[in-house]
Write a structure and sequence with these properties.
- The protein has one domain (21-195).
- Helix content is 11%, strand content 48%.
- It is built from two helices and twelve strands; from the N terminus they run H-E-E-E-E-E-E-E-E-E-E-E-H-E.
- The strands form two sheets. Strands 1, 2, 3, 4, 5, 6, 8, 10, 11 and 12 form a ten-stranded antiparallel sheet that branches.
- The longest helix is centred in the first third of the chain and has 18 residues, at 2-19.
- Residues 1-18 and 200-204 have low confidence and may be disordered.
């Protein structure tokens, strides 16, 4: 029996060692380069996630990188969302192999061509209540959904702010409901919803 237990333990160790490998692991806010430490992973991929956040009329741009372990479900995700005075871009690049996630910041350009979808456009600060507005915006590129999002965040400069916004988003941004936010510390996510627009020439 002891020999059987030892054999099973050895097999388990060999299986785990075959499935695990190292990925670079780090979170670098307000930076377009990021090296980081090495982590043992039990996912099936390493990942480099680049993110661009633009808040407010003062033009604050936060470019950040996250590196670590991932699985196939999040790979090749390219989230995009626009609202009045707000831009969200997220790009997840996965690779397969030991310490393969050496990429730096990489955000593909969003297609600026209007796609026939219109959504309510609103941007309020200092509140987590719904931001009311009669304005609408023309959605572009892959952004064929409308969104309503409210959160309380602290940015890398320690600026504490509450935001309530409405605008256009693509399916990848909606899929994770903006939960993969790495550029800021999220104190509270009050509300997040994507929905089909009332007017659309392209949405199926």
């Amino acid at each position: 029996m002891k020999n059987l237990v030892a054999l099973l333990g050895l097999i388990s160790a060999l299986v785990l060692s075959a499935l695990s490998y190292r990925c670079y692991s780090s979170l670098c806010r307000n930076s377009t380069t990021c090296d980081g430490s090495e982590d043992e992973c039990f996912g099936d991929r390493c990942i480099t996630m680049s993110q661009h956040l633009h808040f407010g009329e003062d033009g604050r741009d936060i470019k950040s990188i996250f590196k670590g372990c991932a699985n196939e479900t999040v790979c090749r995700t390219k989230g995009s969302a626009n609202a009045k005075n707000f831009i969200f871009r997220n790009n997840m690049k996965c690779c397969d192999g030991e310490l393969c996630n050496t990429d730096d910041y990489d955000i593909p350009e969003e297609d600026p061509t209007p796609n026939g979808v219109t959504c309510p456009s609103a941007y309020c600060t200092g509140t987590l209540e719904e931001c009311e507005s009669d304005e609408e915006m023309d959605c572009t590129g892959s952004m064929d959904h409308c969104f309503d999002y409210r959160e309380h965040v602290v940015d890398p400069g320690e600026r504490d702010e509450k935001y309530s916004m409405k605008g256009c988003a693509n399916s990848d941004a909606c899929k994770y409901s903006f939960d993969n936010d790495v550029g800021v510390n999220v104190v509270e996510k009050k509300y997040g919803k994507c929905y089909a627009p009332s007017k659309s020439n392209n949405l199926q």
